[in-house]
């Protein structure tokens, strides 16, 4: 017997490196007419590296001490930024963490070497914008870096600059999705507006929503769906899982994707090639023409 069109489309998608979880999903993905993309780990490779270690004078810390404390707090986290911090501290004596706590879209907190160390989004952790750390942060963000604030017992003690490469197929994927859906994808990110705008310009995205918490990503998806759009969300992190669930179709990046994102998504980009996403939309449309 010949295979039903949707099943052979699933097999074909598999050859492109996309795991489509069901025939229903294979059918639905062709209906999408709007796309929302996450930044870190989705449009970027998700293998960020620490480029700058800047202790604040008042902290009395050296760069290595700052990095070791941050790495202690980050070690239990699976976030790509956490892995970058731990990797940068690989040759240092990193103290163990107790009472680790992580807040998606914000950062981590733990007791390290007897102090409460928090590492995360300056927008959420910096007490006021006139703080001396703000100028350091602005300088790094203008350079396209993600700036991460380190606080010790609630007091800002330093800033880490982190940079991540844009995926080689990010711009062509944006173009392909625009062609298939008739609408340019939008960017939904928890990162800062400056780094987000810079990346958006490089990949050809016009609409950027930055500084978002996981529930803000959901709200953005629901707004589009309330306008009658069928939204495809592509993401990788725990912070994307609620938006992946709320979307008409959710796609997770398989390589560095968090378990929760992989479980929640309707399809998984197994080989970590973003271009497989428009390929799956196209395969769905071809299969639907054969079914009708
Ligand atoms: P994106 O939406 O681009 O994938 P996230 O929502 O995962 O980004 O993170 C948003 C912001 O929260 C980061 O840019 C960073 O400032 C902060 N953050 C989240 N998790 C961590 C972490 N483990 N370590 C440091 N910063 C973090
Ligand atoms: Mg992400």
UniProtKB/TrEMBL annotation:
Subcellular location field: Cell membrane
Origin: domain of life: Bacteria
Family per similarity comment: Belongs to the cation transport ATPase (P-type) (TC 3.A.3) family. Type IB subfamily.
Protein name per its UniProtKB record: Heavy metal translocating P-type ATPase
Organism listed in the record: Actinomadura sediminis
